[in-house]
Specification:
The structure is a homodimer.
Chain A lengths: L5 H4 L5 H19 L4 E2 L1 H8 L3 H9 L11 E2 H12 L5 E6 L3 H7 L2 H5 L2 E8 L8 E2 L2 E5 L3 H5 L6 E4 L3 H13 L4 E4 L12 E4 L2 H13 L9
Parallel strand pairs in A: 3-4, 3-7, 4-6, 7-8, 8-9
Antiparallel strand pairs in A: 1-2, 5-6
Helix pairs in contact in A: 2-3, 2-5, 3-4
Chain A binds a DNA duplex through helix 4.
DNA sequence: CCTATTTTGTGAAGGCTTTCACATAGATAA
DNA sequence: TTATCTATGTGAAAGCCTTCACAAAATAGG
């Protein structure tokens, strides 16, 4: 059943491959809505602006899901990718820092749609503690270690200012959690077995700035 | 003056190098606050969890900014990176889709701090059009082409649902803009000379999900 | 001034990722 | 059943990015 689990295959799957699996999953939703039973690597590639060879290579790391001459079975492949990514279940998530971004994420439908359920909120602001966001009462961040330890929560979204993010993360680690989505613009120090993904929105604008200033156009004259 | 402009050097600078320049810039802010006059590649690397060789190699693409035996001049290097990235100026930005995420970004201090100024808002919802967000009145998206054409706005942040994102982007392109930060979970089709960066927050959670499920720990026993 | 020390800048090596190209296998049609 | 067509799966090649390792340059301390 777990024939494509990386730990069992003892193969190193690259980060880019995993990120593209998310894209394939998303593309398969589109194809599924169109009513197709099967889809080719060419079609998947087109939707996400990749190459067919890339699609096939990525999928081949996890098994042979397609049929030669026909393509991949849409429903089945989608389920298999969901299983690989671990999104064939609900993940309970805590969010720390109910500011602008934080409270926007509480209502962010794309999280819910993918099975990411924000079930607990923390803040250090007395005016926010006890207040209600989409049915969730904001807890005092002072109690974060005890409230997360042994709870059903396995991921934390950090939306606090950069100056306090490391302290918050220390507590999250202390509580035994191992997955953090960080919106603070700092590099968090965590033990090797804790996973951190950084969401740095200003950095993306900086990239656009660079591209414009350097006229870094893909089809510019040489 | 422009000795490090990519177009003049005719060198291809990788995307990862540019993203790391943002990190170096951020690290230099920290070092500057600490009052240091100079900083070594080793110190910069430590702050952003990179290698000293990586830092030196990245910077070397743009020139020789350091002094052997001493390191890099903090203030000066920071200014030079800002220049390379094009963030030594203010960028005027329009934001389309004043929903949860959109309105959070209007107040997002990290954008403002880096010189990214949201100066115009668009939405298609009659209840939102005319309303005021942080001093900006929401415009009708119907007028987006005429209002952006020839304006001082050079970047657009797209926070509309995936189902309408492509239509919005078509209008942005029609208005002659070439830089888009896209929060919609779709792959946008744009001409080759238009730059799109995708911010896919659910994808980051999916990566965390994968990491947890596959016990993909950095220091696991082989 | 000389020596020891520090740290840059950079070719070259190594490693990783993507693309190529084709054998293979199943689908389709007559 | 046989021929033709289509699209996968995958070694090998190519390309790209990171790390290594060291000469060179500047400092610091006698």
């Amino acid at each position: 059943m777990d024939e494509f689990r990386e730990t069992e295959l003892k193969k190193r799957i690259s980060e880019s491959t995993i990120r593209r699996l998310s894209l394939y999953h998303r593309a398969l939703e589109i194809v599924e809505e169109n009513g197709s039973e099967t889809v080719s690597s060419k079609e998947l590639a087109k939707i996400e602006k990749l190459t067919p060879a890339q699609v096939r290579k990525d999928l081949s790391f996890f098994g042979s899901f397609g049929t030669r001459g026909l393509g991949y079975p849409v429903k089945d492949l989608k389920a298999k990718i969901a299983r690989i990514l671990g999104i064939d279940r609900v993940w309970n998530i805590a969010l720390v820092g109910v500011g602008n971004i934080g409270s926007a994420l509480v209502s962010y439908k794309e999280f819910a749609r993918q099975g990411f359920k924000i079930v607990k909120l923390f803040d250090n602001d007395q005016r926010k503690i006890g207040s209600n966001h989409k049915g969730i009462v904001v807890s005092d961040i002072k109690n974060i270690v005890s409230e997360l330890s042994g709870s059903e929560i396995e991921m934390v979204v950090v939306c606090v200012p950069g100056s306090v993010a490391q302290f918050v993360v220390n507590d999250i680690v202390k509580a035994g959690l191992r997955a953090i989505l960080n919106f603070a613009p700092v590099n968090l120090k965590v033990p090797d077995d804790v996973f951190v993904r950084n969401e740095n929105m200003a950095m993306e604008l900086e990239y656009l700035s660079y591209a414009l200033v350097n006229n870094h156009s893909k089809n510019r004259v040489k």
